[in-house]
Amino acid sequence: EKTMNRWTKFFYTMLLTPLLLLGETSPFTLITIPKAGSHLFIKALHFMTGSPAIWHTFFPSSCYISPEKGFLYTHFCLTPQLEQNYRALPKLKKIIVVRDLRDVAVSIVGQICKAPWPGMTLEERNAFKKLPFDQQLLFVINYEYDVYKVAKNAPNSNQASLARVARQAVQYALDTKNLVVRYENMVGEEGGGSLALQLDELHKLAKFIGLELEDEQIHHIASQLYGNEQNPFGKEELANYQSTFSKGKIGSWKTAFNEAHKQAFKAKVGKALIDLGYEKSMDW
User: Fold this and answer.
1) Which value, in Å, is the radius of gyration of the alpha carbons in the chain?
2) Which residues, in sequence order, are bridge partners of residue 72?
3) Most buried residue, 79, 206, 208, 252, by most Cβ within 10 Å?
């Protein structure tokens, strides 16, 4: 372990040095709750840095990536190995993207119906698709599976159960060294939010990674966040990441949740909702 940490720190130093010499952005990674507008934030950072986003599930992948070639991003739930790698890189800045977990649950239902979901077998997914929506939503709220199983069956994904994602997202969001940004602030008017909050979130992102952008530049970035005209994923990669939402509106849970969903959610991840600042108590 000590040997691995020495190598990891060495590779980090190799990554950091050209950034310091060139006066560019600080090295950072983007970590998002699944279905929390990852592509909006990826696009924003792409427009700010001029670099494509590069998915990672382990280190030291960064040692092979020069700053101009890309920045790293991944989803919660992180594997234990990746968390250990991060601890060995204390100067690596972390941008944490959160969203109301109730809306996340609703969005996951739609995603499972459209495409395979990490940790679910083909048989489980076929059975899921035959359920009525109310039962599908309960399934998503309650479903637990092992992160090692996900890593084995879906090695390019770290996503796990909603409860696991919530616990880890809270852990990273409460670390004051990290920048916490919110889906609800980033979606802007097209996602049912506000332009003012969107612009403020973009300013926070830029400042955190070491950039001072003018208001005009921030407005221009905001105007390009939706649609598929711009490619933040490198050559020919956008086809795998068509933007940006199926619906993606704020507060969709309010019409989707019945009392059974509320009680299941409170029992499973209710405290995380409070810790992330979306409720003040369990009385909702």
Assistant:
1) 19
2) 29, 54
3) 206
Distance, CA of 138 to CA of 122 (rounded, Å): 19
| Cross-strand bridge partners of residue 96 | 31, 180
Long-range Cβ contacts of 141-144 (<8 Å, 24+ apart) = 141/105, 141/261, 141/264, 141/265, 141/268, 141/269, 142/264, 142/268
Over residues 53-65, mean pLDDT: 67
Dump pLDDT digits (tens) for 78-127. 888 888 888 888 888 999 999 999 999 999 999 999 988 877 888 889 99
50's tokens:
């001029």
Residues 6 or more apart from 194 whose CB is under 8 A from it?
188
Sign of CA dihedral 270, 274, 277, 280: positive
Tell me: pLDDT of 2 over 90: no
HEC-encoded secondary structure of 89-147: CCCCEEEEEECCHHHHHHHHHHHHHHCCCCCCCHHHHHHHHCCCHHHHHHHHHHCCCCH
The sign of the torsion formed by the CA atoms of 227, 120, 153, 171 equals positive
Burial class of residue 76, CB neighbours in 10 A (0-12, 13-18, 19+): buried
Q: Which band of pLDDT confidence, cut at 50, 70 and 90, is reported for residue 229?
A: low
Q: Are 95 and 51 in contact (CB under 8 A)?
A: no
Encoded amino acid at 159, one letter: Q
The residues, ordered by sequence, that sit 6+ positions from 181 with a Cβ below 8 Å of its Cβ are 41, 95, 96, 97, 98, 201, 204, 205
Average pLDDT over residues 183-205: 94
Residue 46 · residue 232 · CB < 8 Å: yes
